[in-house]
Design goal:
By secondary structure, the chain is of the alpha+beta class. About 50% of the residues lie in helices and about 15% in strands. The strands form two sheets. Strands 1, 2, 3, 4, 5, 6, 7 and 8 form an eight-stranded mixed sheet that branches. A two-stranded antiparallel ribbon has the order 9-10. Helix 2 packs parallel to helix 4. The N and C termini lie far apart (about 45 Å). It binds flavin-adenine dinucleotide. The site of flavin-adenine dinucleotide (FAD) has 20 residues, from strand 1, strand 3 and helix 11.
Protein backbone atom coordinates (compact mmCIF):
# COMPACT_ATOMS: atom_id res chain seq x y z
CA UNK A 1 0.00 0.00 0.00
CA UNK A 2 3.05 2.28 0.30
CA UNK A 3 2.74 2.77 -3.45
CA UNK A 4 -0.52 4.62 -3.00
CA UNK A 5 0.65 6.61 0.03
CA UNK A 6 3.65 7.71 -2.03
CA UNK A 7 1.40 8.73 -4.90
CA UNK A 8 -0.74 10.77 -2.51
CA UNK A 9 2.23 12.59 -1.00
CA UNK A 10 3.27 13.56 -4.53
CA UNK A 11 0.02 15.44 -5.26
CA UNK A 12 1.18 18.94 -6.20
CA UNK A 13 -0.40 20.95 -3.36
CA UNK A 14 0.75 24.06 -1.47
CA UNK A 15 1.07 23.76 2.33
CA UNK A 16 -2.31 25.54 2.77
CA UNK A 17 -3.96 23.19 0.27
CA UNK A 18 -2.46 20.19 2.03
CA UNK A 19 -3.92 21.43 5.34
CA UNK A 20 -7.32 21.81 3.74
CA UNK A 21 -7.11 18.34 2.19
CA UNK A 22 -6.26 16.95 5.64
CA UNK A 23 -9.43 18.58 7.01
CA UNK A 24 -11.49 17.19 4.12
CA UNK A 25 -10.01 13.74 4.73
CA UNK A 26 -10.91 13.94 8.43
CA UNK A 27 -14.45 15.11 7.65
CA UNK A 28 -14.83 12.37 5.03
CA UNK A 29 -13.66 9.60 7.37
CA UNK A 30 -15.31 10.82 10.58
CA UNK A 31 -18.69 11.93 9.25
CA UNK A 32 -19.39 11.49 5.53
CA UNK A 33 -18.28 7.85 5.37
CA UNK A 34 -20.26 7.03 8.51
CA UNK A 35 -23.50 8.42 7.03
CA UNK A 36 -23.02 6.87 3.57
CA UNK A 37 -24.91 3.64 4.30
CA UNK A 38 -27.94 5.50 5.69
CA UNK A 39 -27.89 7.92 2.76
CA UNK A 40 -27.85 5.02 0.28
CA UNK A 41 -30.39 2.77 1.99
CA UNK A 42 -32.90 5.56 2.54
CA UNK A 43 -32.25 7.51 -0.66
CA UNK A 44 -31.75 10.41 1.75
CA UNK A 45 -30.35 13.64 0.34
CA UNK A 46 -27.22 14.18 2.50
CA UNK A 47 -28.02 17.66 3.85
CA UNK A 48 -25.80 17.11 6.90
CA UNK A 49 -22.85 16.39 4.61
CA UNK A 50 -23.61 19.45 2.50
CA UNK A 51 -23.70 21.59 5.66
CA UNK A 52 -20.43 20.10 6.94
CA UNK A 53 -18.78 20.74 3.56
CA UNK A 54 -20.01 24.33 3.74
CA UNK A 55 -18.65 24.74 7.24
CA UNK A 56 -15.22 23.98 5.81
CA UNK A 57 -15.98 26.62 3.15
CA UNK A 58 -15.25 24.23 0.29
CA UNK A 59 -17.35 25.98 -2.37
CA UNK A 60 -15.08 29.00 -1.97
CA UNK A 61 -12.19 27.14 -3.58
CA UNK A 62 -13.58 27.54 -7.08
CA UNK A 63 -14.90 31.11 -6.71
CA UNK A 64 -12.56 34.09 -7.30
CA UNK A 65 -11.68 36.16 -4.23
CA UNK A 66 -13.45 39.26 -5.57
CA UNK A 67 -16.78 37.40 -5.34
CA UNK A 68 -16.43 35.90 -1.87
CA UNK A 69 -14.22 32.94 -2.75
CA UNK A 70 -10.77 31.73 -1.79
CA UNK A 71 -9.50 30.04 -4.97
CA UNK A 72 -7.19 27.05 -4.81
CA UNK A 73 -5.56 25.00 -7.55
CA UNK A 74 -7.44 22.55 -9.75
CA UNK A 75 -5.28 19.77 -8.26
CA UNK A 76 -6.58 20.70 -4.78
CA UNK A 77 -10.15 20.66 -6.07
CA UNK A 78 -9.70 17.21 -7.69
CA UNK A 79 -8.05 15.85 -4.54
CA UNK A 80 -11.07 16.99 -2.48
CA UNK A 81 -13.56 15.48 -4.97
CA UNK A 82 -11.72 12.18 -4.79
CA UNK A 83 -11.58 12.21 -0.98
CA UNK A 84 -15.28 13.01 -0.50
CA UNK A 85 -16.34 10.51 -3.20
CA UNK A 86 -14.24 7.80 -1.59
CA UNK A 87 -16.36 8.24 1.55
CA UNK A 88 -19.74 8.75 -0.17
CA UNK A 89 -20.05 8.92 -3.94
CA UNK A 90 -23.47 10.62 -3.73
CA UNK A 91 -22.09 13.47 -1.63
CA UNK A 92 -19.06 13.69 -3.90
CA UNK A 93 -21.17 14.24 -7.00
CA UNK A 94 -23.42 16.81 -5.31
CA UNK A 95 -20.38 18.91 -4.40
CA UNK A 96 -18.63 18.39 -7.75
CA UNK A 97 -21.83 19.46 -9.56
CA UNK A 98 -21.58 22.86 -7.85
CA UNK A 99 -18.24 23.28 -9.59
CA UNK A 100 -19.47 21.90 -12.95
CA UNK A 101 -22.40 24.34 -12.99
CA UNK A 102 -20.64 27.42 -11.65
CA UNK A 103 -17.28 27.31 -13.45
CA UNK A 104 -18.88 28.54 -16.73
CA UNK A 105 -20.25 31.58 -14.85
CA UNK A 106 -16.75 32.22 -13.47
CA UNK A 107 -15.19 31.83 -16.94
CA UNK A 108 -17.84 33.45 -19.15
CA UNK A 109 -20.10 35.59 -16.92
CA UNK A 110 -20.03 39.40 -16.92
CA UNK A 111 -18.73 41.33 -13.92
CA UNK A 112 -22.31 42.15 -12.91
CA UNK A 113 -23.38 38.48 -13.13
CA UNK A 114 -20.39 37.28 -11.15
CA UNK A 115 -20.89 39.90 -8.43
CA UNK A 116 -24.59 38.98 -8.15
CA UNK A 117 -24.51 35.17 -8.50
CA UNK A 118 -21.16 33.81 -7.31
CA UNK A 119 -21.34 34.88 -3.64
CA UNK A 120 -24.48 32.74 -3.29
CA UNK A 121 -22.49 29.63 -4.20
CA UNK A 122 -19.38 30.68 -2.25
CA UNK A 123 -21.62 30.94 0.81
CA UNK A 124 -22.81 27.36 0.35
CA UNK A 125 -25.61 27.38 -2.25
CA UNK A 126 -26.21 24.39 -4.51
CA UNK A 127 -25.96 24.57 -8.29
CA UNK A 128 -27.13 22.33 -11.12
CA UNK A 129 -26.04 21.89 -14.72
CA UNK A 130 -29.00 21.21 -17.01
CA UNK A 131 -28.25 19.92 -20.50
CA UNK A 132 -29.92 16.52 -21.02
CA UNK A 133 -33.45 16.15 -22.41
CA UNK A 134 -35.51 13.06 -23.25
CA UNK A 135 -34.43 13.17 -26.93
CA UNK A 136 -31.05 14.83 -26.40
CA UNK A 137 -28.57 12.73 -24.42
CA UNK A 138 -25.26 11.92 -26.08
CA UNK A 139 -26.19 14.37 -28.82
CA UNK A 140 -26.93 17.46 -26.76
CA UNK A 141 -27.51 19.53 -29.91
CA UNK A 142 -30.92 17.86 -30.20
CA UNK A 143 -32.19 19.82 -27.18
CA UNK A 144 -35.56 21.55 -27.56
CA UNK A 145 -35.84 23.82 -24.53
CA UNK A 146 -36.51 27.26 -26.01
CA UNK A 147 -35.31 30.72 -25.00
CA UNK A 148 -37.53 33.45 -26.47
CA UNK A 149 -36.45 37.07 -25.88
CA UNK A 150 -39.26 39.35 -24.69
CA UNK A 151 -38.22 42.86 -23.63
CA UNK A 152 -35.95 42.62 -20.58
CA UNK A 153 -36.80 38.95 -20.10
CA UNK A 154 -36.17 35.60 -21.74
CA UNK A 155 -39.17 33.27 -21.74
CA UNK A 156 -38.12 29.67 -21.15
CA UNK A 157 -40.21 26.67 -22.19
CA UNK A 158 -39.35 22.97 -22.20
CA UNK A 159 -37.90 20.41 -19.85
CA UNK A 160 -34.73 18.60 -18.78
CA UNK A 161 -34.20 15.12 -17.39
CA UNK A 162 -31.59 13.45 -15.16
CA UNK A 163 -30.49 16.73 -13.59
CA UNK A 164 -28.26 16.22 -10.55
CA UNK A 165 -29.61 18.36 -7.67
CA UNK A 166 -32.21 19.78 -10.11
CA UNK A 167 -34.89 19.76 -7.41
CA UNK A 168 -32.78 21.37 -4.67
CA UNK A 169 -30.47 23.76 -6.53
CA UNK A 170 -30.39 27.49 -5.82
CA UNK A 171 -29.04 28.21 -9.30
CA UNK A 172 -29.46 26.14 -12.47
CA UNK A 173 -27.10 26.67 -15.39
CA UNK A 174 -29.59 25.97 -18.15
CA UNK A 175 -28.88 25.26 -21.81
CA UNK A 176 -31.54 25.88 -24.47
CA UNK A 177 -32.07 27.22 -27.98
CA UNK A 178 -32.45 30.88 -28.89
CA UNK A 179 -35.73 31.17 -30.76
CA UNK A 180 -34.45 33.79 -33.20
CA UNK A 181 -31.56 31.61 -34.48
CA UNK A 182 -32.52 28.89 -36.98
CA UNK A 183 -29.31 26.83 -37.09
CA UNK A 184 -29.82 24.17 -34.36
CA UNK A 185 -26.18 24.22 -33.22
CA UNK A 186 -25.67 27.97 -33.42
CA UNK A 187 -28.92 28.54 -31.48
CA UNK A 188 -27.65 26.89 -28.29
CA UNK A 189 -27.44 29.47 -25.50
CA UNK A 190 -27.06 29.39 -21.75
CA UNK A 191 -28.60 31.26 -18.84
CA UNK A 192 -28.89 31.03 -15.07
CA UNK A 193 -32.32 30.16 -13.75
CA UNK A 194 -32.80 31.07 -10.09
CA UNK A 195 -34.71 29.07 -7.50
CA UNK A 196 -38.30 30.22 -7.09
CA UNK A 197 -38.77 31.37 -10.71
CA UNK A 198 -42.53 31.10 -11.44
CA UNK A 199 -43.29 28.38 -14.03
CA UNK A 200 -40.43 26.13 -12.87
CA UNK A 201 -41.47 22.73 -11.56
CA UNK A 202 -39.95 19.42 -10.52
CA UNK A 203 -41.69 16.65 -12.47
CA UNK A 204 -40.13 13.72 -10.58
CA UNK A 205 -36.92 12.41 -9.06
CA UNK A 206 -35.44 9.13 -10.28
CA UNK A 207 -35.24 5.86 -8.32
CA UNK A 208 -31.69 4.78 -9.16
CA UNK A 209 -29.28 1.82 -8.98
CA UNK A 210 -26.62 3.84 -7.13
CA UNK A 211 -25.93 7.37 -5.94
CA UNK A 212 -29.27 6.99 -4.22
CA UNK A 213 -28.70 9.94 -1.90
CA UNK A 214 -28.01 12.33 -4.76
CA UNK A 215 -31.23 13.54 -6.34
CA UNK A 216 -31.64 13.22 -10.09
CA UNK A 217 -34.59 15.30 -11.26
CA UNK A 218 -36.78 15.82 -14.29
CA UNK A 219 -37.58 19.54 -14.34
CA UNK A 220 -39.95 21.60 -16.47
CA UNK A 221 -40.18 25.24 -17.56
CA UNK A 222 -43.59 26.67 -18.38
CA UNK A 223 -43.23 30.26 -19.58
CA UNK A 224 -40.51 30.93 -16.98
CA UNK A 225 -39.46 34.56 -17.23
CA UNK A 226 -35.72 34.89 -16.64
CA UNK A 227 -34.14 38.37 -16.65
CA UNK A 228 -32.04 38.87 -19.76
CA UNK A 229 -29.31 39.90 -17.34
CA UNK A 230 -28.95 36.18 -16.56
CA UNK A 231 -27.91 35.21 -20.10
CA UNK A 232 -24.28 34.04 -20.00
CA UNK A 233 -22.37 35.38 -23.01
CA UNK A 234 -24.30 36.19 -26.17
CA UNK A 235 -27.21 34.31 -27.77
CA UNK A 236 -25.71 31.34 -29.65
CA UNK A 237 -22.55 31.05 -27.54
CA UNK A 238 -23.88 28.07 -25.60
CA UNK A 239 -22.09 25.29 -27.47
CA UNK A 240 -18.68 26.96 -27.08
CA UNK A 241 -19.36 27.48 -23.37
CA UNK A 242 -20.61 23.89 -23.03
CA UNK A 243 -17.50 22.33 -24.59
CA UNK A 244 -15.20 24.48 -22.50
CA UNK A 245 -17.08 23.59 -19.31
CA UNK A 246 -17.09 19.86 -20.05
CA UNK A 247 -13.30 19.93 -20.39
CA UNK A 248 -13.06 21.00 -16.76
CA UNK A 249 -15.88 18.83 -15.40
CA UNK A 250 -14.68 15.57 -16.98
CA UNK A 251 -11.45 15.34 -14.95
CA UNK A 252 -13.62 15.94 -11.89
CA UNK A 253 -15.79 12.96 -12.90
CA UNK A 254 -12.52 11.01 -13.24
CA UNK A 255 -11.49 12.03 -9.70
CA UNK A 256 -14.93 11.02 -8.41
CA UNK A 257 -14.63 7.58 -10.07
CA UNK A 258 -11.11 7.16 -8.68
CA UNK A 259 -12.48 7.83 -5.20
CA UNK A 260 -14.86 4.88 -5.65
CA UNK A 261 -12.06 2.74 -7.11
CA UNK A 262 -9.68 3.52 -4.22
CA UNK A 263 -12.37 2.75 -1.64
CA UNK A 264 -13.08 -0.64 -3.27
CA UNK A 265 -9.37 -1.41 -3.61
CA UNK A 266 -8.61 -0.66 0.06
CA UNK A 267 -11.62 -2.66 1.28
CA UNK A 268 -10.59 -5.56 -0.96
CA UNK A 269 -6.98 -5.66 0.21
CA UNK A 270 -8.06 -5.52 3.87
CA UNK A 271 -10.58 -8.34 3.43
CA UNK A 272 -8.36 -10.82 1.56
CA UNK A 273 -5.63 -10.28 4.18
CA UNK A 274 -8.06 -11.42 6.89
CA UNK A 275 -10.32 -14.03 5.33
CA UNK A 276 -8.94 -17.56 5.19
CA UNK A 277 -9.98 -20.62 3.22
CA UNK A 278 -8.17 -23.99 2.99
CA UNK A 279 -5.95 -22.76 5.83
CA UNK A 280 -4.56 -19.82 3.85
CA UNK A 281 -5.33 -16.15 3.48
CA UNK A 282 -7.33 -15.47 0.31
CA UNK A 283 -4.48 -13.13 -0.74
CA UNK A 284 -2.09 -16.09 -0.77
CA UNK A 285 -3.91 -17.72 -3.72
CA UNK A 286 -2.19 -16.98 -7.00
CA UNK A 287 -5.45 -16.51 -8.91
CA UNK A 288 -6.33 -13.69 -6.51
CA UNK A 289 -2.80 -12.20 -6.63
CA UNK A 290 -3.05 -11.89 -10.41
CA UNK A 291 -6.37 -10.03 -10.12
CA UNK A 292 -4.96 -7.77 -7.41
CA UNK A 293 -1.78 -7.07 -9.40
CA UNK A 294 -3.81 -5.89 -12.39
CA UNK A 295 -6.08 -3.66 -10.36
CA UNK A 296 -3.23 -2.13 -8.29
CA UNK A 297 -1.16 -1.38 -11.39
CA UNK A 298 -4.04 0.14 -13.34
CA UNK A 299 -5.14 2.20 -10.34
CA UNK A 300 -1.64 3.58 -9.77
CA UNK A 301 -1.29 4.51 -13.48
CA UNK A 302 -4.70 6.16 -13.58
CA UNK A 303 -4.14 8.14 -10.38
CA UNK A 304 -0.89 9.43 -11.85
CA UNK A 305 -2.77 10.50 -14.97
CA UNK A 306 -5.26 12.40 -12.77
CA UNK A 307 -2.44 14.57 -11.40
CA UNK A 308 -0.99 14.94 -14.91
CA UNK A 309 -4.29 16.41 -16.14
CA UNK A 310 -4.50 18.61 -13.02
CA UNK A 311 -1.02 19.96 -13.77
CA UNK A 312 -2.02 20.75 -17.37
CA UNK A 313 -5.00 22.79 -16.16
CA UNK A 314 -3.05 24.51 -13.37
CA UNK A 315 -0.28 25.26 -15.88
CA UNK A 316 -2.75 27.22 -18.02
CA UNK A 317 -3.02 24.68 -20.87
CA UNK A 318 -6.20 25.31 -22.87
CA UNK A 319 -6.22 22.26 -25.14
CA UNK A 320 -6.53 19.24 -22.87
CA UNK A 321 -9.86 17.75 -23.99
CA UNK A 322 -8.32 14.44 -25.19
CA UNK A 323 -6.40 13.98 -21.94
CA UNK A 324 -9.62 14.77 -20.02
CA UNK A 325 -11.57 12.20 -22.09
CA UNK A 326 -8.86 9.59 -21.49
CA UNK A 327 -9.05 10.23 -17.75
CA UNK A 328 -12.85 10.14 -17.54
CA UNK A 329 -13.06 6.96 -19.62
CA UNK A 330 -10.26 5.02 -17.94
CA UNK A 331 -11.08 6.08 -14.37
CA UNK A 332 -14.74 5.13 -14.71
CA UNK A 333 -14.02 1.80 -16.44
CA UNK A 334 -11.52 1.10 -13.67
CA UNK A 335 -13.96 1.98 -10.89
CA UNK A 336 -16.46 -0.44 -12.41
CA UNK A 337 -13.89 -3.22 -12.83
CA UNK A 338 -12.23 -2.84 -9.43
CA UNK A 339 -15.53 -2.62 -7.54
CA UNK A 340 -16.84 -5.69 -9.41
CA UNK A 341 -13.65 -7.66 -8.77
CA UNK A 342 -13.65 -6.68 -5.10
CA UNK A 343 -17.21 -7.99 -4.78
CA UNK A 344 -15.69 -11.23 -6.15
CA UNK A 345 -12.95 -11.10 -3.47
CA UNK A 346 -15.66 -10.98 -0.81
CA UNK A 347 -17.47 -14.00 -2.27
CA UNK A 348 -21.09 -14.27 -1.07
CA UNK A 349 -20.54 -11.55 1.52
CA UNK A 350 -19.74 -9.13 -1.28
CA UNK A 351 -23.19 -9.64 -2.75
CA UNK A 352 -24.91 -8.69 0.50
CA UNK A 353 -25.33 -5.24 1.94
CA UNK A 354 -23.33 -5.83 5.16
CA UNK A 355 -20.20 -4.63 3.38
CA UNK A 356 -20.09 -1.44 1.35
CA UNK A 357 -18.50 -3.05 -1.73
CA UNK A 358 -21.90 -3.83 -3.24
CA UNK A 359 -22.77 -0.12 -2.94
CA UNK A 360 -19.46 0.87 -4.50
CA UNK A 361 -20.22 -1.41 -7.46
CA UNK A 362 -23.67 0.18 -7.90
CA UNK A 363 -22.20 3.68 -7.51
CA UNK A 364 -19.43 3.02 -10.04
CA UNK A 365 -21.76 2.18 -12.96
CA UNK A 366 -23.07 5.67 -13.68
CA UNK A 367 -19.56 7.07 -14.02
CA UNK A 368 -19.29 5.17 -17.33
CA UNK A 369 -22.49 6.86 -18.52
CA UNK A 370 -22.61 10.50 -17.40
CA UNK A 371 -20.58 13.44 -18.72
CA UNK A 372 -20.42 11.69 -22.09
CA UNK A 373 -20.76 7.92 -22.20
CA UNK A 374 -17.51 5.99 -22.53
CA UNK A 375 -18.50 5.05 -26.09
CA UNK A 376 -18.61 8.75 -26.90
CA UNK A 377 -15.25 9.35 -25.17
CA UNK A 378 -13.62 6.51 -27.13
CA UNK A 379 -14.92 8.15 -30.29
CA UNK A 380 -13.56 11.56 -29.21
CA UNK A 381 -10.14 10.13 -28.33
CA UNK A 382 -9.88 8.12 -31.55
CA UNK A 383 -11.03 11.04 -33.68
CA UNK A 384 -8.41 13.34 -32.14
CA UNK A 385 -5.70 11.48 -34.07
CA UNK A 386 -7.31 12.18 -37.44
CA UNK A 387 -5.07 14.41 -39.57
CA UNK A 388 -7.09 17.50 -40.41
C1 LIG B 1 -27.75 9.68 -12.24
C2 LIG B 1 -27.62 10.58 -13.43
C3 LIG B 1 -27.21 11.91 -13.25
C4 LIG B 1 -27.09 12.76 -14.34
N1 LIG B 1 -26.79 14.09 -14.14
C5 LIG B 1 -26.89 14.96 -15.17
C6 LIG B 1 -26.81 16.37 -14.96
O1 LIG B 1 -26.58 16.84 -13.84
N2 LIG B 1 -26.99 17.20 -16.02
C7 LIG B 1 -27.27 16.74 -17.26
O2 LIG B 1 -27.45 17.54 -18.17
N3 LIG B 1 -27.34 15.40 -17.51
C8 LIG B 1 -27.18 14.50 -16.50
N4 LIG B 1 -27.29 13.15 -16.72
C9 LIG B 1 -27.53 12.67 -18.07
C10 LIG B 1 -26.34 11.91 -18.67
O3 LIG B 1 -25.29 12.79 -18.94
C11 LIG B 1 -26.87 11.16 -19.90
O4 LIG B 1 -27.65 10.08 -19.42
C12 LIG B 1 -25.76 10.69 -20.82
O5 LIG B 1 -25.16 11.78 -21.47
C13 LIG B 1 -26.26 9.69 -21.88
O6 LIG B 1 -27.40 10.17 -22.53
P1 LIG B 1 -28.67 9.20 -22.67
O7 LIG B 1 -28.98 8.68 -21.32
O8 LIG B 1 -29.74 9.91 -23.39
O9 LIG B 1 -28.15 7.98 -23.54
P2 LIG B 1 -28.10 7.88 -25.16
O10 LIG B 1 -27.40 9.07 -25.69
O11 LIG B 1 -29.46 7.57 -25.66
O12 LIG B 1 -27.15 6.62 -25.34
C14 LIG B 1 -27.64 5.28 -25.33
C15 LIG B 1 -26.49 4.34 -25.72
O13 LIG B 1 -26.07 4.65 -27.04
C16 LIG B 1 -24.67 4.92 -27.06
N5 LIG B 1 -24.35 5.97 -28.03
C17 LIG B 1 -24.98 7.17 -28.18
N6 LIG B 1 -24.35 7.89 -29.14
C18 LIG B 1 -23.29 7.15 -29.56
C19 LIG B 1 -22.25 7.35 -30.51
N7 LIG B 1 -22.14 8.48 -31.20
N8 LIG B 1 -21.35 6.34 -30.69
C20 LIG B 1 -21.43 5.19 -29.97
N9 LIG B 1 -22.40 4.95 -29.06
C21 LIG B 1 -23.31 5.92 -28.85
C22 LIG B 1 -24.36 5.39 -25.65
O14 LIG B 1 -22.98 5.21 -25.33
C23 LIG B 1 -25.27 4.51 -24.81
O15 LIG B 1 -24.64 3.28 -24.60
C24 LIG B 1 -27.37 12.27 -15.64
C25 LIG B 1 -27.77 10.94 -15.81
C26 LIG B 1 -27.92 10.12 -14.73
C27 LIG B 1 -28.42 8.71 -14.94
Amino acid sequence: MKIFERLDTAIPLSPDEQLLLDSVRALSNDEIKVRAEHVDKNSAFPWENVQAINQLGLNAMFIPEAYGGAPLSYAAYLACVREISKACAATGIIWATNFHAIKPVVDFGSEEQKARLLPRIAEGGLASLAITEPDAGSDATGMRTSFTPDGDDIVVNGGKIFITSGDVADLILLFGKWSEIDDPKKAISVLVLEKGTPGFSVVRTEDKMGHRGSSTAAIAFDNCRVPRANLIGQPGEGLRILFSSLNKSRPSIGAHALGIARAAFEDGVAYINERKQSGRKILEFQGIQFMLADMATDLAMCERWLWHVAALVDGGEKDFSTEASMLKMRASDLAMRISTDVVQFFGGYGYCTDYRVERLMRDAKISQIWEGTNQVHRQLIGRSFLNK
